[in-house]
Amino acid sequence: LTVNHINIHQTTMTRDNTFSWNHSIPTNFNFKNINALIIGGTGGLGRAISTQLIDAGANVTVIGQTMRDTESDSLKFVKADLSSMKNAKEVAKTLNDNGQVKEFTHVIFTNGIFSSRTRQETAEGIERDMAISYLSRYAMLNDIKGNLTKSFNTGTADLKPRVFIMAYPGTNQLGNPDDMNAEPSTYSFLNAHMNTVAANEALVLKVAKDSDNFNIYGLNPGLVKTGIRSNLYGQGFFARQLENFMSFFQQTPEVYASKMIPLFVAPDIEDRDGGMFDNKGEAILASKDLDVEKFWEGSAKLLEKALGK
């Protein structure tokens, strides 16, 4: 492996200079009005975002494998194996309290891994990176729609509920929608991961076009000091040395989260449905020539394959 292999998330993005927003939290904003669902919220970026939202006064439900924090009135945990599409879809049923639909103002997908140098496959026959980093999001989003509120209030305006998809949009990674499952005969860890990048961006663009009841946005955090790359190069001496070297160029999850919290509640982005934002919260342009419809069709077929196993 080379540093260039690991640096693919640093691919150049193009700023959208037609749009800017106020990077501060609205005056007198009450975070008690925020009820956030964070998928992948038990570690890394999701955990940092969860912690800062709770500290600000929000209520948060996190979905993940292992809970590292103590549940409280403002923090709830739902255990899920997001490599399984059956389990991912079943999770939606656990979001109801005593038969009453639990409503969220924000849904934030941060779950993800990096593809391995040798192809890994889930019990449902899906390449593991694709399953965790993308297909589980596609599978869950449709079911979670019914758990979104009608609006949330900033103190001066009522805004639509918001969904945020964290991947690496705007980097002109077009993927290969004809090989979304990274079949063994064609497997390349870089190509497999780029398929999840392209598919997540296609998800944002497709849902923004077709949904009126909520807004959806893409987030590109760039390189952040998390364990996402461990599935690719393990945790040995070389991996630790490479991660230490790369840490000089990375934000911590806490710094990144502090830049995203104002974005999550910013009134300025209300009319930017389908918009993409970089690791500083600045607007970026979507990738050119991404075949959104073909990825959407491929997603449906891949989910059907997983659920049929």
Describe the SSE topology.
Blueprint: H1 3-6, E1 35-39, H2 44-56, E2 59-64, E3 75-79, H3 85-91, E4 96-97, E5 100-101, E6 106-109, H4 128-144, E7 152-153, E8 158-159, E9 162-166, H5 189-210, E10 215-219, H6 230-233, H7 237-246, H8 253-265, E11 276-277, E12 283-284, H9 292-308
Parallel strand pairs: 1-2, 1-6, 2-3, 6-9, 9-10, 10-11
Antiparallel strand pairs: 4-5, 7-8, 11-12
Can you walk through the features of this model?
With about 300 residues, this protein is α/β, with parallel strands linked by helices. Helix content is about 35%, strand content about 15%. The chain has 9 helices and 12 strands. It has helices at about 5, 45-55, 85-90, 130-145, 190-210, 230-235, 235-245, 255-265, 290-309; strands spanning about 35-40, 60-65, 75-80, 95, 100, 105-110, 150-155, 160, 160-165, 215-220, 275, 285. It has an 8-stranded mixed β-sheet with strand order 3-2-1-6-9-10-11-12, with helices on both faces. It is globular and about 55 Å long. The model is unreliable at about 1-10 (pLDDT under 50).
